[in-house]
Amino acid sequence: MAWYRLYHLGSDGQHVAPEEVEAQDDLTAVRKARTVPNGFGAELFHGRRKIADVPPTVMHRQIGRQVGLFGA
Predict the structure, then answer these.
(1) Any idea of the CA torsion for 66, 11, 29, 48, to the nearest 10 degrees?
(2) H or E segment and range at residue 23
(3) Which strands make up the sheet holding 2-9, listed edge to edge?
(4) CB within 8 A of 15, min separation 6: which ones?
């Protein structure tokens, strides 16, 4: 078994909360990483080697003003 590190990303794209994932190989680690809830995506590493970008698993409502209604 190997240890992988899943770095959760914040809204600004920076690493915020690392989490360890134990898996037999890269493919298993990616599958496990995709089941971990994350709001803005994550990056999976094995040592210094980046294995995968993990898409967000939690959808956020877009908050803010609408653009384009009156050219704003």
Answers:
(1) 140
(2) strand 15-23
(3) 15-23, 2-9, 42-46, 49-54
(4) 7, 8, 9, 43
**Structure confidence at residue 57 as a pLDDT band (50, 70, 90):** confident
Supply the Cα-derived Rg of the chain in whole angstroms: 16
Sign of the Cα pseudo-torsion (29, 60, 65, 15, in order): negative
What is d(CA 56, CA 33) in angstroms, rounded to the nearest whole number?
11
Residue 70 DSSP class: S
Mean pLDDT over all residues of the chain?
Answer: 85
Query: In the block, which residue shows the tokens 């995968």?
Result: 52
| Residue count of the chain | 72
Q: pTM score, two decimals? A: 0.77
